[in-house]
Write a structure and sequence with these properties.
The chain is α/β, with parallel strands linked by helices. It contains nine helices and seven strands.
């Protein structure tokens, strides 16, 4: 919750209903729509449900379960969430929200056995990209060059690490700070798709490539 809207009535109401301090709450357009009018880039913010869907999709894939996929979330306020290989995201949004509130408060989530499941650190998108050290950073956007999802996933073939960057926002495009770090950027459909659909398609193609499965359109 940004400080400058913490005193807005919609935030205060939500705070007294949930018992959370505004500083502990996730910005959520479903509750804080009126307060968000004051925020810069407000149309790109306040949708933690998009991140929930995206994580559920990515972390349920065979690619992730086999340990062949690393997942990071970079936030608008330059926080980086590192997802551990053994994280299973709660299917219930209510439980996911609780987990994220704890993560932003404690900066780490551990399992009952003490294994780190999620960590929060300060970090710009550029520093995240540097830390990952991928050979290629590929952007996915409707503003990118039209291509097939098969060809885009194929970029990962024959190199050690390839990062795919997907926007976890409802509308708008990557900021300049993100765009300057991207290599090629591709659009994989004539439609503007939901982030989780793009994730599902790219990761499925990566799985097929890994298995050496050839299908129509393969080159
Ligand atoms: C709901 S969209 C955000 C809207 C944005 N105007 C756009 O279409 O890129 C969420 C994310 O899904 C990905 N995405 C959506 N449609 C896409 C497409 N046709 N090709 C590639 N990526 C797409 C992008 O990473 C985008 O940031």
């Amino acid at each position: 919750m940004p400080d400058n809207i913490a005193g807005h009535p919609s935030v205060k109401n939500h705070s007294s209903r949930t018992g959370l301090k505004p500083s502990e709450m996730l910005l959520d357009r479903s509750y804080h729509h009126a307060a968000m009018k004051r925020l810069p880039d407000s149309w790109k913010r306040g949708r933690p449900d998009i991140v929930h869907f995206a994580l559920m999709e990515a972390l349920s894939t065979p690619l992730f379960l086999k340990g062949r996929l690393k997942v990071y979330v970079h936030t608008v306020n330059d926080k980086v969430i590192t997802i551990a290989d053994n994280l299973r995201v709660p299917k219930s949004y209510f439980r996911f929200e609780g987990l994220m509130v704890s993560l932003f408060r404690d900066r780490v989530i551990k399992s009952d056995e003490g294994a780190v499941l999620m960590e929060l650190a300060d970090g710009s998108f550029s520093s995240l990209v540097n830390d990952i050290g991928a050979d290629k950073i590929v952007g996915l956007s409707t503003a990118g060059v039209q291509s097939s999802v098969h060809k885009v996933a194929g970029i990962a073939k024959g190199i050690d690490d390839c990062a795919f960057v997907i926007g976890g926002f409802p509308s708008g495009h990557f900021s300049e700070k993100v765009t300057k770090n991207l290599g090629p950027t591709y659009s994989i459909s004539d439609f503007g798709l939901e982030a989780h659909v793009v994730i599902a398609r790219i990761l499925y193609e990566c799985e097929l490539l890994e298995e050496g499965v050839h299908h129509e359109g393969n080159e």
